[in-house]
Structure formats: C-alpha cells, structure tokens
Amino acid sequence: MPDLLAARSQMALSLGWHIVLACFGVGFPLIVLLAEWRFLRTGDAVYSALARAWTKALGVLFAVGAVSGTILSFELGILWPRFMGRFGEVIGLPFAMEGIAFFVEAIFVGLYLYGWDRLPPRVHLLTGVPIVVAGVASAWFVVTANAWMNQPTGFKLDAAGKVVDPDPWAAMLNPATPVQTTHMILAAFMVAGFGVAAVYATGWLRGRRDRYHRLGFVVPFTVAAVVTPVQIGVGDWAARFLAERQPVKLAALEGLHETERGAPLTIGGIYLDGKVHYGLEVPKGLSLLAHHDPNALIHGLDEVPPDERPPVAVVRNAFQVMVAIGFGLLGLAAWFGLSWWRRREPPASRWFFRAAVVAGFAAPVALEAGWIVTEVGRQPWIVWRVMRVSEAVTTAPNIRIGLYLLFVVYALLTWGTIFVLRSLGGSGVSPENTASAPQELSQS
Q: pTM, whole model, 2 decimals?
C-alpha cells in the first residue's frame, strides 16, 4: 500500500522534526528565566547577558516550531480524514485547549522578547512565567490525545461502528495520560537542557574558559541533570503500565514471543531474524521489573494473531537505544553532581565536556527513539484495538508528492533556522562585554 506508507512516512517526518523544536518550546523558557532570576538575585551581569542571548534564540525556535506544528495540524485532517471524522468529537477538546495555550505562550513570548529595558526588571521576569506554564500545558494537552490513541476511552460504538455518547473529558483523562504526559514533559527539559549546555561545552573545549561560558554551561546542564534521574523512574512506571495495559507492546519491546512466568530480561543486543543476538539475559528480570514479582506472568506475542503484532525489530531496537542513552545521561548527570558536591564546579576533565557535547545530540535521539516505541509499538492500530491505520488513511491520490514536498520544506526550515541563529551570534560582541548578546550563539 504505497499511499499508506507515504502517509505514515510524512507523518513520521513531521512529528520527528517538530518534536525537537517543541522540546525547546517547553524546556528552554525555564532555562532563560533561571538566568534572569539569578541576575536579579546576584546582580551578576553575566546572567543578564545569557538571558538576553537565549531570549533571541528562544524567539527564533518558537517561530519555527509554530510553522512545523501548523503543518502537523493540517496533516491530521489531510492524511487521516477517516480517523478525524470518526473520532474528532471525542479528541477535539485537547487540540482546542492546546491552541489556547499556544496563543497565550505566543503573546507572552512577544512581551518578554520586547520587554527588555522597557519593563521594570521584576515585571519582565514575571512576564516569562506564563511562557513556561503555557509551554508545559501545550505539551500536556497534545500528548493526552496521543495517550488516548493508546488507551481509548470516553465513547461507545453502536452496532454500525459509529461513535455515540462521546465524553471528551474522559477521553483526555484516559489511563495513559499521567505517565505519557509526565514522560514527555521531562524529556523536553532534558533535550533543551543538554542541547543548550552542549553549545557552551563546545566553547569550553575550544579554550573559552571565561565565566560567561561556565555559567552558560552550568545553568542548562543543571536543569537536565536534575530531571534525568526522575525520568528514569518515570520510564520504569511506563514499563509497568505497559505490562498491565498494553502487554503486546511490552512483548515487542523485549522480543518475547511466548507467554511465560519468570520471564527473563535481555539487556542490549540486536533483534534480528526473530531473536535477540548478543544480549545479556537476566533470569526472571522482566517479571520482576514489570510486576515486582520474579514469577509474574508476562504475556508474549503469541497471544495475538500475526497481523496484530507490531514490527518487533523496529520497536525493540528503538527501545534499547532509548534506554542506553537514558542511562548514559544518568551517569553523566551523576558525574556532574558529584563534582559539584565536592568542589562547586563542573568536572575539569575534557572527557566530561566531550560527553556533554555528545549528550546534546544523544538526548534528541533518545526522544525520537521513544516516540518510535510509542507509535510503532501500537501498530497496526491507530486507535488501539478499535481502528487500524489502514482504515484511517486518506483515499486521495498522489500522497507521495506531499512527502517529497515536505522533505524540501523541512530542508529549507533547517537551513533557515541554523542561518538565523548563526546570524544572531555573529551580530553580538565578545563575552567580556556583558551588556549585549555574545558570539557563542554561532556555535549552536
């Protein structure tokens, strides 16, 4: 079904590109506010310079994210009209609420961006608070819709399969909402924190050891480091949720074909030809992690027909990438925390800063891998056990042309974003003059 493949590819490209920008829209405002708050508390002009420079980057990323988000909203109706036509009245509420949150965020981004030197300092700081709240709220509302696709509630189907008795509030507050929204919002702070810190870690490796680059690294990296262990705990919560609510997805995550008690946990390895190669098997580990019982029953893929199983290789390998990066970031955060506890300084090792640069790229990779697990792990259902993806796709011809055009659009957006950010950095002055934006943005 080439049109189905094209529609899925187009949606995957749009979501995969937008989600990174969305993370900066959620996590970056808090980092900016922390820098300005520290300036007001300490009077240190370096914090003010950082906040001003980051505000300009925030404005650019917010604008580009608005463009890619708009593309996604159109694609829901263009590519999946039968899905939206059938369930729009059930899941329309969170999209409407997200629109309100977006406009609130946009208004206050404008006030914050142009309020520098025009508003009293404390008032200016307060105008940034709604940006943080609205950004988090926007992410929360959107993810509730995706959570509903994994745990559909808030409606009934009549004998003809038509939706009756829709309850949008029950749909938005479905069983998957708490874990999915928490997992996504924490991931956003990690992506933004590690991403911004990587810019200044690069500067440190190039010999820029001034206070400006030190604080430019410490503020965002601290945010990411604090969130990381919490995210690991939420990941465990998510796995236990799958064991109870979506056992087929859990079986795909682990490559478990047969239902068994005391199921082993296989760490690492690559899933090929129906089995895991080169993995480390922990006896009864999966049962223990999923149910806190080493002899608990774990459902395998054999409980559902082959045409209702997700592609195991894609799901499991993506899950292993996500987990490996997550624990790598946890180790990096622990290294930073131990050094800060001992000396009130980041580690002096060049290897630490090399790892921090890698973390700036690894965090978005883990994010993308996590969404692959969420979306591909639900296949072949667009609404779990209610509607298949093949039943939801448009019947309009030439969907592949839209996919090709989208590649061009996102290539131009990527180039334009990088060009503008580099131009902002190039228009600044040296970090020693802390009254205006510095040049290190050119490294972003």
A: 0.91
